[in-house]
Amino acid sequence: MASPALSQASTAFETDAPQIRDDHKTRRRAALQRVKQATTSQDILLFLIAYRILNALSIRTFFQPDEYFQSLEPAWEMAFGANSGAWITWEWKNQLRSAIHPALFAGVYWLSAELSTLLRLAPHDHAELLLAAPKVTQAVIAALGDYYTWKMGEPTRRERLVLVLEALVCGTLVLASSLVVDRIYYQQWTFPPIRFLYFNLARSLSVHYGRNDWHYYLTQGYPLLLTTFIPFALVGVYQSLFPQDSSSTQALPTANIRRQLATTS
Description:
Layout (H helix, E strand, L loop, with lengths): L3 H55 L7 H15 L9 H4 L6 H20 L3 H29 L5 H30 L5 H11 L13 H11 L3 H12 L10 H13 L1
């Protein structure tokens, strides 16, 4: 005959068994959902990186000369010396540009050159590597920007606070790094953003290079870039800012992403 204590334990187990099973099922479903979300995020990130790299390596044109003169040319000079044939424009001679962005590509150039030497690549392959390396680097940076724009589709209040704190920390680190890199590049302490504002606003020297009306971007800039896509762009921006189905919670992340892209692109 079972003891009273054993009977009570058996009864308690039988009473709690359904709840325990439900808890296990809930945890299992939550774990599967987390795995699914992680897999989806990883797939999206890999797709964005692959797409951006393919796009970067396929393009044979450029949008503005500054794509070279404000990044790759000074980067080449940093990596291979002042007598390497880099074209350095007047902005750099007047300390109007920060060297932190070219410094990233300078590191890429240097690593590519070292890798080429290590592998004993032929001159043609060496040149192709130096051409492709900065493109792939910028493609990965762009893909990460796309990915985290998607991740920011539905931020919670806590995530917004974390974002602000991270922006402050990262901004401080970047500013400090910029001061050090500019000190090394210009051989003196300088702060290019302030010099840029002083040059363009206080001295108004930028008017020598032309002056646009206040409505330039609306009446000339966007039409010049979009051309025949203007009607579709207007419809897309309107639908992004004023979604029709605002009651659906499932569409909220997508709506937030569209609104962010419509206002910042």
